[in-house]
């Protein structure tokens, strides 16, 4: 597979060893392993809520590490001002989300938070094209999520997601990516969403060994997975198409062009042959 450039139709069903705790990625980053589907959820907590709690614990752990970049990033989290959206015009700055977005200047050098009050908003939200220069990269060998999506029925058309390890966190929900550019090194498309990538350019920047996906399907009954249709995979390094983050990870590549950087095996079993099917 690694010696030719041609069209592939590959279906990857990846498995993950049960009862595991932590694993080292190909870089120096650490990713918590997915547990088996037999895990007992806390009382009055759904699977999504439990996953959210575990993610926030991981964020707290990473944030507690002694690194100057974390302090710099934390300082930048403070918003210059906040806009509120409420269906009641007496209690909010705007009554629609789109009006709040449209109120921002084309050239905006400040961080603005748009806070949406509880309610039902039936609308399409459009954000204008962002031409801000790409910022300089952070610490080498560290995880840094560039974008996370946890909403349902979200679509991204003509967007660029740039990063290294863990670029795009497709956390949960149904998502559609059309004509997007996604760049990274290890697990740079990961999560447990039900997502379709159509006509997207996936580009690896791994220096040695990298991986495109780390899909987190935790049960055979879960209707989740990543599908890549009419995409292209390019880049550097020796690249795995996927790593088994969940016990029933599911990734599909259909009618996709791939550079001759793909590892012959295609996928990585997280270092333990017992995870293979």
TrEMBL record:
Record field: catalytic activity: [(1->4)-alpha-D-galacturonosyl methyl ester](n) + n H2O = [(1->4)-alpha-D-galacturonosyl](n) + n methanol + n H(+)
Give UniProt keywords alphabetically. Aspartyl esterase, Hydrolase, Signal
- The signal peptide annotation in the UniProt record is 1-23
Tell me which EC number(s) this protein carries: 3.1.1.11
Q: Where is the active site?
A: 187
Please provide the Gene Ontology terms (biological process) for this protein: cell wall modification; pectin catabolic process
Alphabetical list of InterPro entries matching this protein: Pectin_lyas_fold, Pectin_lyase_fold/virulence, Pectinesterase_Asp_AS, Pectinesterase_cat
Q: Which residues form the Pectinesterase catalytic domain?
A: 138-271
Superkingdom? Eukaryota
User: Which Pfam families does this one have?
Assistant: Pectinesterase
What does the record give as its pathway? Glycan metabolism; pectin degradation; 2-dehydro-3-deoxy-D-gluconate from pectin: step 1/5
Q: Name one GO molecular function term.
A: pectinesterase activity
Family per similarity comment = Belongs to the pectinesterase family.
This one is known as Pectinesterase
Q: Tell me the classification of the organism that encodes this protein.
A: Eukaryota, Viridiplantae, Streptophyta, Embryophyta, Tracheophyta
């Amino acid at each position: 597979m690694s010696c030719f450039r041609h069209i592939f139709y590959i279906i990857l069903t990846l498995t993950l060893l049960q009862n595991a705790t932590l694993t080292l990625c190909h870089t120096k980053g650490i990713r918590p392993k997915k547990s088996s589907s037999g895990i007992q959820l806390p009382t009055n907590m759904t699977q999504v809520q439990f996953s959210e709690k575990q993610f926030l614990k991981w964020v707290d752990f990473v944030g507690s590490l002694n690194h100057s970049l974390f302090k710099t990033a934390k300082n930048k989290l403070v918003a210059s001002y906040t806009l509120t959206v409420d269906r009641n015009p007496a209690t909010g700055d705007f009554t629609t989300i789109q009006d709040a977005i449209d109120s921002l200047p084309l050239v905006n050098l400040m961080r603005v938070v748009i806070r949406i009050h509880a309610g039902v908003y039936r609308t399409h939200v459009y954000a204008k094209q962002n031409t801000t220069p790409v910022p300089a990269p952070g610490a080498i060998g560290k995880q840094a999520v560039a974008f996370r999506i946890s909403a349902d029925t979200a679509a991204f058309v003509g967007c660029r997601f740039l990063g290294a390890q863990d670029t795009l966190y497709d956390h949960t929900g149904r998502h559609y990516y059309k004509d997007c550019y996604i760049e990274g090194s290890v697990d740079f498309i990961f999560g447990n969403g039900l997502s379709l990538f159509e006509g997207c350019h996936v580009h690896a920047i791994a220096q040695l060994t990298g991986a495109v996906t780390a899909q987190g399907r935790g049960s055979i009954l879960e209707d989740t997975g990543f599908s890549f249709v009419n995409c292209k995979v390019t880049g550097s390094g020796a690249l795995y198409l996927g790593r088994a983050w969940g016990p029933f990870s599911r990734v599909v590549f259909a009618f996709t062009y791939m550079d001759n950087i793909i590892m012959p095996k295609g996928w990585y079993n997280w270092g333990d042959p017992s995870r293979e099917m």
